[in-house]
Design goal:
The complex is a heterodimer of chains A (about 180) and B (about 290). Chain A has about 180 residues and is of the alpha+beta class. Chain A contains five helices and five strands, in the order E-E-H-E-E-E-H-H-H-H. Chain A has a five-stranded mixed sheet with strand order 2-1-5-3-4, with helices on one face. Chain B has a five-stranded antiparallel sheet with strand order 4-5-10-6-7. The chains are: A alpha+beta (about 180), B alpha+beta (about 290).
Chain lengths: ~180, ~290
């Protein structure tokens, strides 16, 4: 039997054949070979979640995935979460609209995990959001807004693009739009 | 340069292992990738187990066979189907965060043999056996004999851990199981100390009691003195307190970065107390709702 020499992945819907050392990390292949810099490296040990991607629909730490071991799989990065027209997808929009972004380094991972959560549960409560997002660390300590953004995204998704109303957020500020971060 | 293989058959995988004595098996990779990067492991050959069909869960009459590459995410859902495995599900749900649980596997947790391994602690309380396969034979070993020390197991270099087998005897179907760990925060933490307990009470007395302790010895261990003390007794407050003190002495913890040995003993005493009191309460509730004991 011969050692593996190339890896086939479907990345953000596009099939890619990559000739590479299969013991490399999925994170490095995405960033260095495919130019997808949405997934970030921070801890490199599965603690922080900045490198989160969807692997066959499930969130994983791409820094802990040996790329050869996911040969044939489908990978979605934050770059693959935009809407059909190429604009921001509902979860991305919710993070912007709720001001859930400070330095932004954790945001791609947060958006990826939140997207996976909302695929599993249409209307998660705060406890579920906090449990499922526990592997995504924000060191700007913006968790309140992040949890709020996930609830907001759930609402946007449920209403399929019809934006949520101020009364859905009794704590207020539904009219406050952070704006300005619309370029990808 | 490490050669990477992803065999499609067990025979190919076993040949690779017997031809390359220092090869390493890759399952989910959540431990291996960290170790490789830190230079802790430098294998010439990596054999990925992902295509070998080791991801089945077979629920049989008196046991459950869990394939080595079953993930923690799948284990946490298993309790709904097999209530006796509830404590294993609870333990699996505390392994890292969601992203880790989607990759980390039961076989990896067993072979990595950390004294703090959550799922291993639960399996030890459940009297699990591991199944090891090599070219010429398949053998099963009791988990308590499989674990030899931190990172050390009875797995031979040419063997693949193919499954873990959990007995589910009929008489234990109403046993109370729980897994509790204490750490510096709630989410994704390595246990300072943990307790997996499985206790069956009937006719007012304890009929079976298994208490596995994590992070307080070179391997996860059973609190044998405490277990044999409670069997046959009624779980009065005094018996619970005495058992918890015995479990405290069954532990042989060390001082390290995460906690002092004394604190770890305190935690064991508290968690064993919690388990036994919950077992008593669960039994009382069963008797109220189900009529006869």
């Amino acid at each position: 039997m011969k050692p593996m020499e190339k890896v086939t992945l479907t990345v953000n819907g596009v099939r890619r054949e990559i000739v590479t050392d299969p013991t490399r990390r999925l994170l490095d292949v995405l960033r260095e070979d495919l130019g997808l810099t949405g997934p970030k490296e921070s801890c490199g040990a599965g603690e922080c979640g900045a490198c989160s991607v969807l692997l066959d629909g499930q969130p994983v730490n791409s820094c802990l995935v040996m790329v050869g071991s996911v040969d044939g799989s489908s990978v979605v990065t934050v770059e693959g979460l935009s809407d059909e027209a190429g604009g921001l997808g509902p979860v991305q929009r919710a993070f912007v609209e709720r001001g859930a972004v400070q330095c932004g380094f954790c945001t791609p991972g947060m958006v990826v995990t939140a997207t996976a959560l909302l695929e599993h549960e249409q209307d998660p409560d705060d406890a579920t959001i906090k449990t499922k997002m526990a592997g995504n660390i924000c060191r700007c300590t913006g968790y309140a807004k992040i949890v709020e953004a996930v609830r907001w995204a759930a609402k946007i998704r449920r209403e399929e693009g019809h934006g949520p109303q101020p009364e859905d957020f009794p704590s207020g500020r539904a009219d406050e739009v952070t704006g300005g971060i619309h370029e990808r | 340069m490490t050669d990477f293989f992803r065999p499609a058959t067990m025979d190919e995988a076993l040949d690779l292992l017997s031809d390359n004595p220092d090869a390493m098996c890759l399952s989910g990779g959540t431990d291996l990738m960290v170790g490789l990067r830190a230079g802790k492991f430098r294998p010439d050959v990596i054999v990925d187990l992902g295509r070998l069909g080791l991801d089945a869960i077979d629920i049989l009459a008196d046991k459950v066979r869990i394939g080595a590459t079953v993930t923690m995410s799948r284990l946490s859902g298993l309790a709904d189907t097999v209530p006796r495995l509830g404590l294993l599900g609870q333990a699996a749900a505390t392994v890292g965060a969601w992203q880790i649980q989607n990759r980390a596997t039961i076989g990896g947790n067993l072979c990595n043999a950390s004294p703090a391994a959550d799922a291993v602690c639960a399996l030890l309380a459940l009297d699990a056996e591991v199944e090891l396969t090599r070219r010429s034979e398949t053998r099963t070993v009791a988990l308590r004999d499989f674990l030899l020390g931190p990172g050390k197991t009875d797995r031979k270099p040419d063997e693949i851990l193919t499954a873990v087998i959990v007995p589910t005897p009929e008489e234990d179907s109403d046993a109370y199981g729980s897994y509790r760990k204490e750490g510096s925060r709630n989410a994704m933490v390595i246990a300072v100390a943990s307790v997996a307990g499985l206790t069956r009470i009937s006719g007012g007395k304890v009929r079976h009691c298994a208490l596995a302790l994590g992070s307080v010895a070179p391997t996860t261990i059973r609190a044998k003195t405490a277990e044999s003390f409670v069997v046959g007794k009624e779980l009065s407050d005094d018996v619970v307190a005495q058992a918890a003190r015995l479990a405290r002495d069954d532990a042989t913890p060390i001082d390290d970065l995460r906690a002092s040995a004394v604190y770890r003993r305190d935690v064991i005493e508290a968690l064993v107390t919690e388990h036994l009191i919950e077992a008593r309460q669960a039994r009382a509730q069963d008797e109220r709702s189900g009529g006869q004991a």
